[in-house]
Each structure stands twice: as C-alpha cells, then as structure tokens.
User: Fold these one by one.
Assistant:
Number 1:
Amino acid sequence: MHVNESHEPATAEDALAQLMMTVGRRFRARLDGDTVDPSQAALLYTLKCRGALRLGDIADAMRLDASTVSRHVQQLADRGFVERGPDPEDGRASIITLTEDGRAGLKSSFEQRRAILAEALADWDDVDRELLRIHLSRLAAALGDHA
C-alpha cells in the first residue's frame, strides 16, 4: 500500500485497503452483548441468504476449508444457532439450517456493528451518505459480491 507522509492514502485503491483493514478489525472485535462470535457471523449470514445448505456447500460459498466450517457449525449447533438435518437427496450428508435463535443472534450482531457505522457517519450530510451507498454498492457488484 502506498501511503504518503501525511498518512493519507495516495490512491482510491490504497484508501479502500486502509478502510477494509480498519473496518475488518472493528467488525471482528467482540462487542459487549455479542451472542454470536464475530468469526461465525459470516456463516450464519450465508445460511440466512442462501437457505439450508450442506456443509461442503457452505465451505464453497464462504471459500473456507470444510474442517473450519465443520468446527464452526458444531459450535453454532451446540448454542442452538443452527440445526443439522438429514439431506433428502443423500442419506450420508446433512443439511445445515439457521434457527430462529441464530437469526436473532445474527440480527443483534449486525445491529451493533451498524451502530458503529451510524456513529461514524453521523456528521455526513444526506447527499454524501447517498453517494457513499451508491459507490459501495457498485464496488460490491464489481468485486462479485452479488455473484
């Protein structure tokens, strides 16, 4: 990353990389009242968006190793945030489903992190906030977030 002496990013790419590191740290940090471990929230979000999935499909969707996903699924199942059920197409496999407790925990986690963003944007006017929304949506699409 290219940063000049004033610590201002030299390019849009540098600014985005700096933002991602800062936001990533803030969002991965455990917050008071968290019921969902931040490292597991992405798995719950994947199930929320895609519905019930096999473990291997979750790993593929998240681009993670199946053993990592399996460990997280077990921890989330132990807490009642996901359930394992039989796969109707393959008796050897199981389907992972998000429970209502999992939905509630994910919602709470998102609300806490959204509050951090709302505070950071509190002094931005409506025009700047809308431009940010438009540009971030465009960037997410370009990065394949909607694929």
Number 2:
Amino acid sequence: MLKVHHYAMEVTDVLIVKDFYLTLLGFVEDEKVEFAGEEILFLRNGDFLLELIEVNQEEALPGNVHLCFETKSIKDIMEKFLKAGIAPEEGPYTLKNGWKTVFYKGRANEILEFLEP
C-alpha cells in the first residue's frame, strides 16, 4: 500500500511562496534538506508535506497542476483570502453530490482547490 509523503513544487521565489502557505493556509516550516547542491524547504500542515524547490525563471516549467485541500468551511477560506485581497479564480461551486469547492491561484501560479465535502 502506498501513502503520499509529499507534493513538490518548483518555484522562482521560495520566500514569497513560503509566506503565502504559512500566512494563509496554516502551514509551518518543517525542515530544510540539501540535495544535489540545492536547499529544499519542506512545509507541513498536519500529515501533508509540501516541498519547495527554488529554480530560476529559465528552469521553471509551467504545468496544469492543482493542489486540493479538504476544509470544514469554504466560507472561512474565502474570508481569509478576501482579507488578503485575493479573489477566486473559479467558484465557489456546489457539486451535485453536495461538495462545495473554490479555486485560487497561489504565489507560484499553482491552482489551489479547497473542498468542503
């Protein structure tokens, strides 16, 4: 059986992305690891680890990636983002099964989905 250990993102400014996840999403800095001459930062939110790898603009690869976080309250997430001056990219939506979802863009241009089951 496999268990997800972490999700990695290549970012062009690790400090801006780190601040976004710490301030808005309640992550904490977990640890720094050196690998192949690069310093890699891990952020933690409960059992979820996010790996941030800083690359220069030429190395950054665009992609259709999104992270989905389960939340108890879409309303609370939306209020937090509104206070930070960040509007949703899409939504909020209520799906046929009753799930509520909303999408935002993160500081590394990643798409963040928040899902209230």
Number 3:
Amino acid sequence: METLTLNIPPAVGLTDEQFYQLCVANEPWQLELTKEGELIIMPPTGGESGIRNSDINIDLGLWNRKTKLGKVFDSSTEFKLPSGAYRCPDAAWVKRERWEALTQEEKRRFPPICPDFVIELRSESDSLEKLRAKMREYQNNGASLGWLIDPQTPLVEIYRTGLDVETLNFSVDNPPQLSGEEVLPGFVLDLTLILNP
C-alpha cells in the first residue's frame, strides 16, 4: 500500500488534542501532519523495512546506553516540530538536557521538540523527493545531523546544520560506515546489515 495524503482546509484545522486523538483512534496507521495542513497516512512497514529499522535502532540504542547522552526514539514516535508539523522519523535521538527540559505531559504525548539527530530509511512505498523534503524540514527545525538512507538506489544523504547535503553513492557489496560526528560522539553505523536484511 502506498502513502496517502489528505488536505485539511485551513478553516477546518486540527488542534494538538484533536490530532493526538485522531492518531490514537487510527492505530496501526502512522499519521503525520505537515505545517501546510496535509495529513499523511503511512501504511505499516513491510518485513525488510522492519528489519532494517530494528537494526538501526538497536545500534543507536546500544551506543546511547553506553554514553547516556540522550534518548533514542523509534519510528512510532511522533514529534511536534517548531514549525507546527508533526513528524515520525524512522530513528531519532534527543540530547538528554533538551529532553529533561520538557514537562511530563510533553514527554507523554507528542514531544514538542525537533530531534538533534534523525534517520529516514526509504522503503518501497516512499518517494525519494518527499523524504528529501522531510529531511530539509528536520534541518530547518533544528536537527544538527540527519541521514537519509536509500537501500534501493543505493545512496546515503547526510544533512548537517549550515552545510550542503553530502551524497554517498555506493554498492550494496561495499557500503559505507556512517559517523555520528560531534553530534553522536563515537557512534558508527555499519550499513552492511542494513542493506542485507
């Protein structure tokens, strides 16, 4: 099934509470809301995408468990970005001090914060151009580092604050290792397992 987009007229709009209740009432669908009012309905992931997402979150979670520098979130976490958009990256990380500055209610619902680090993993139903726009949106809302991983092309695009996007084209037989740089010190993601689920 493909991703669907519905336009919500500005006169109708959705409050934060209404969007939250809409998401709760429509599990297992994953819903996102753009700042322009487009309601994006994403189908559940397939097996290979699920394996890839899981491997990414395991690696990021194990690194974070050792460093205790922040909090790791999986693809079911909805963030309310400063722009007003609601987005669910495939993997995300927030610095500990930024997370701890939120209230308990903000932590419990859809955290009103842009992650410091995000990963989007392209699945077969994803448009590469829409994922690129989503990555730019994270960047414009304060993400310091982001990786768009496309196993189909295969390529990785690296999004950094204030810099042009870096694109790594590679073969599935010789994938790169990605460094968390100064944002995630010591974190390295080996794409070998991600590309061969």
Number 4:
Amino acid sequence: MSEIRAVVHALAVVDRVMAEGGVRVRQVADELGIAPSSAHRLLGTLAEQDYVVQDPYSRIYRPGAKLLALAGGVVGTREVRHAAHRPMESLAAATGESVSLSVLARSEVEFVDGIESGHVLRASPRIGARLPAYATAGGRVLLADLTPEEVAGMFGTGIRKLTDRTLGSLNELTAALARIRQAGYAVSRGESTEGITAVAVPIRDGSGRAVAGLAVVAPTERLPDTGLSVVIEQLTQAARQTTTELLPRAAPKGNEDRHD
C-alpha cells in the first residue's frame, strides 16, 4: 500500500468512525477493498495513536481521545495544561508541595505538567513520563470515570506491581475505583514510588467528563491521613478553577453582531 493510498484509507476510516460511531475490521476491509489483515493493521495504527479505541467486548473500534478532541467532543491536552497551570501554581504555594497534572493515555497516565516543591526533600514532577494508571492517584481518578467494563478491558490480562504496595489484582482495582467514585478523590501511598504519597482529584470539562488528574505529591511523612482533608479541599478548589477556565467565554456586551 502506497503512502498516499494509506493516508486516503486512514481518512476514510476516520470519516466512517465519526459518522457511524464505530466500525469493525470486516466492515473496513469490505468498504476499502483491502484484506482483513490490512484493515486490522490500519485500525491498530489508529488505535496506537489514540484516534480510535477498541471495545474489548464487542471488538468495535470507536472514536478515541484525539479524534474526539479534533471534533470538539473533549478538550485537548494543551488546553487543559494551559487552563490548569495558574491554579497549579496557587496550589503549590498553598500546600508547599509539588503538584502534577496527568492525562489518560490508554491504560497509562502521562504527566503533562508539574510544579516542583521548594523543599530539599521533595517529589519532583516527571513531565513526559508515563506510568500504569492503576498505580497513581491521578490515574485512578481518571479510571474511576470509566465503566467497570472499560477498566476490565484495559487490565483484565493482569496488573504489574511496581512496588509492594501496588494494587495486585483487577478485583482490588475495581473495589478501589468504586470508593474513589463515592469519595471524589484518590490517594496513592508508595504504589508507584516507595516513600511517595499522592492525593488527586479529577479535573472535569464543561460536560462533566474527567479530562485530567490533578495531584499533590510529597514524601509520605508530609502527607499524613490527619491532614488530607485540607489538601483535598485545596485540590478541589484548584480543579474547579481549571474547569471554569475551560468553559466557553461569553461574548462581551456590545460586541454582538448587529442585524438592525
């Protein structure tokens, strides 16, 4: 398949996915006149780039995060990062600890922004790094926004422990996510890095969809259970400020189009 032909096929698949909400491998093969193996590779490439995502049960490929963002269905990472940065700076100043911003990238979280604490002993944000979503507080508040079936599709084949404290099974993760949905926040104590605790809340867009995880991260001894309620309130306030920044701005009075 030539490069130009491959691009044409990819665009045709994107058009079909957005028009119908999902496609199957056989449908793509028949409509494009290509072998099922070629259709499978094409859809797999689009899935790797987050343009489509495959439902683990129906096997249907549906619009992914990037395709939805391009269509205006969700806000993009750059927009979230821009909206969150000033609230993150205020949060870091209020808590005295590091702050991180993460987004879901398939079954992982990617850290897309961070503010570093001024403490000599601190948890430094790892901007650009990826970790399994189940092992981080920011990742778990995003997983909690998904259905149990979607989570099972991501981790049904097994969970890899990063430390002795990492959740060890899908059942443990499912139970943890149920608690997070009820509480509205997540705590990770030494689950991705020994000696580091993170507390996170979701950042939501105007439709209520969780689009990022906002976390305060510090050495465990500086985030004891007795002080978490204050940190959670500070996180919640910063998340709300970010959501406000993400909302469409009303046009200033006097700038409306005139039709008289």
